[in-house]
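User: structure tokens for this one?
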Amino acid sequence: MESSTARDIADVVIRVEGLSKDYTMGSEVVRALRGVDLTIRRNEYVAVMGPSGSGKSTFMNLIGCLDVPSGGQYWLNGQPVAGMTENALARIRNRELGFVFQSFNLLPRASALDNVALPLVYARVPKKVRHERAAAMLEKVGLGARKDHRPNELSGGQRQRVAIARALVTQPALLLADEPTGALDSRTGEEIMALFGELHAQGQTLMLVTHESDIAAYARRVLFLKDGVIERDELKRN
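Assistant:
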């Protein structure tokens, strides 16, 4: 019989202890992140807020394995990430993490289907399988009929849906979204946030970075960063 401790460990997607990041600017050392401790469990929906210079972008980059910490420990799905080689980090990014950015970052000459399938190319998934999975993800985000369209034939909201489908196609442990509605009008932004809510209801673990309180309000838990530390950690009550 599985122990409660084993279940608790299996339920943790992100755990960081004493996570820090320093940057050297000339003769000055800037402490962007100062010993952050945090646990995020499976199917949590977390928003990260903070003013410019608070450390939220640095934190996102570290969690996304886009940068390496100066100190502390980071476990993703039980794997110790700090100290991994760049090749190992690239594999983690491809297999365990999905990314959604403000600017969509789609290949302009590729169809929606091929854009969504791209992470599976890097993972060396056979072409037939990756196209089937990409088509299923486009259906999931409501764009099944647009799979052959290029980005310039899609609206801003549709392009962001393609980006979300691409982030989901590898079935990541964590979906990371950095200002996902920043390039969208308010109505389209609400539609994208409703889609995130549906994904959360289906079991997806999400973390989004935003400076907008109305966007953060969609999350179930909100972290407030200031001067490189978590100043507040608020959990919504039903």
